[in-house]
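Researcher: Next sequence.
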Amino acid sequence: MSSLPTVIPSTATDIAYEWLRNFVSKLPWNEEANLSENQVAEESGTSRTAAREALLRLDAIGIIRRVPNRGAQVPALSIADVRTMMETRLVIEEWAVRKCALSGTGSNALTALTKQQKEVSADPIAFMKFDLEFHKLIVHSANNPTLERVYCSQRDQQLRLGINALSHSVSRAEQVVEEHKTIMRCILAGDADGAALATRRHLESTNRAFLQKTQVEEPLLTGAGSRRLATTPLPAPAVGVERTTLRTALVQVASPDTETKAERITRVSGMLDALNDVDLVVLPELWNTGYFHFDHYQEDAEPLSGPTVAMCAAFARSHGCYVHMGSFVERTAEGLIRNTSVLLDRAGSIAHRYSKIHLFGNGSEETEVLTPGDELTIAQLPFARFTSTTCFDLRFPGLWDQIGKRGAELVIVPAAWPKARLDHWNMFSQVRAAESELILVACNASGVQRGEELGGNSRIIGPNGEIVATAGSGEEPLYASIDLQLIDDRRNAFPVLNDRLTNYDNLKED
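Model: Next structure:
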């Protein structure tokens, strides 16, 4: 399967070769070492002949350099060497994993390798050897012997780098296993785009671990450490439901009276660009205009092709993530003005749209300017059935009853909820998640608008009503991971939705 097999020592040469591999892999990446045949023979417990043959084998693949009459030298690696290896991995592995996902080959073996790798996580050398086999199997399954030879020619040097990175962090091994599982799940689901993106993220993560270990500031991959590594937009996967973990950022935005809409869009664009390693970004209600700036609604209204959607779509494409852009004042083709929220997929295309149904009229001018929405749609995303509501909608159980009946599993709620009623914000968000056993992501605005202080405290609520994460009151991002498998786990363990009546209107009165 590869030109660099993991050798099961059976001959003296194999034993010497395996000793050499272990020696080289543990050597710091930027240090060189000199080895003699006598030293290799003595340390490996073999003969000079076996040592010589083992050295010749490593020399043939460029791991060491033979020095006449002196033995061999293990050269130090430069940043340029490392960059070349990482770029080669990126090109070959991303291509190979797409083919692997489309063909479905190798999935059972990948599952076994991931399990074995987890079992040896305390042993860096054994762990990295399973790591090599995991990635080599993907490349091998793509069935291109030429690319496989190129790929395998540098894997022993990557073993050296990987062990160096593992030695710096006790949690790196666990993180690698989880990243491998994500790649594997995408392959099993036949999700080529998802598998390529998961592989790209895994290499970014490997790159960051190496940089942290070496304290080298120069990135090894263009855009490493951010989602800008993706130069070609990845479309949203078009396969069935694939439960995964969404790395999420809820961005609490303040909309001060002194800032214009254009200035705020530019400022928020900078806030988004500062986000790293996210699958989903969520913004609050009417952040670009400011909810309480009712006199700006008409002039700030824009179509779906306007600057707010355009900015968020560009970010989604460049970072390869989903963006729920909160809501904005939409001017429809019919001339109506609505409070509309939009979910953009990884290609920057509209995956879901919702116009606020319950407009707030208690001391608010929203009902005087805007037209309420009249649709509730459920979008089948690759990872969940999705819908959205907005702020005041949280208070109306009839709407949420329909959300449950229509099978929603993930609901995003952008809001401009005042601090004065923050206790209701906390209560309703937990109740709505628990009663329909879904995950609720609620992103609130912060700051002061026209003398009204917004509450912040954006939150993610699990399907049991548990608080997964919550933010403070100021303008800030809230980072959290959303485990979508919790939806199935909760509904299987406590299938309360099966006992819900289809109609409560027929209940008898006394």
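Model: The longest strand covers residues 322-331. The first helix runs from residue 12 to 26.
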